[in-house]
């Protein structure tokens, strides 16, 4: 029975990886007006699919490329919350313009990737490398960072949503087409 459940979960996981790009194709194939919010939603869905694929295939691919990588955690987890924030901002009428402030939202992601690629090549006597030999501490630190990031963005998104709902109730008599409570 256990192998059946394992196989079922594996099939569902592979389906989840394939479903992301399929949903993005469906989202962007409509003949309706292309919105910037749809672009952020598409990138968010692709990053979720990539995150699942990264968990399954990253080690095999990186070993095949002979890259010296220290796995600090799945960096795509650090993309999800900022992309969701940008999606909400676009839905509520704010326009996201590429700037240094926008790039700062992706700083944890970029730092994690840079660190993963460079830590194996540093001097073994270096104290940070000694610290990284304690894998449990690294994993706990990574998950604390992910939880803090998600929690902060969740609070900011909720605040933005409540302010937008209040604005809509005060300014618009017909909320159809502008209400995002769905």
Task: Note down, in words, how this protein is organized.
This protein has 182 residues and is mainly α. The protein has 7 helices and no strands. Helix 3 (77-91) runs parallel beside helix 7 (135-171). The chain is globular. The relative contact order is 0.09.
Describe this structure in a few short sentences.
The protein contains 7 helices and no strands. With 182 residues, it is mainly α.
The averaged pLDDT comes out at 78
The backbone outline, from C-alpha atoms, is globular
The major beta sheet can be summarized as: none
Run of helices and strands: HHHHHHH
Structural class: mainly alpha
Which percent range describes the beta-strand content? Answer: under 5%
Helical content stands at: over 70%
Radius of gyration over all CA atoms, rounded? 20 Å
Total helical segments: 7
Cα separation of the termini: 39 Å
Low-pLDDT residue intervals, each spanning 5 or more residues = none
Number of strands: 0
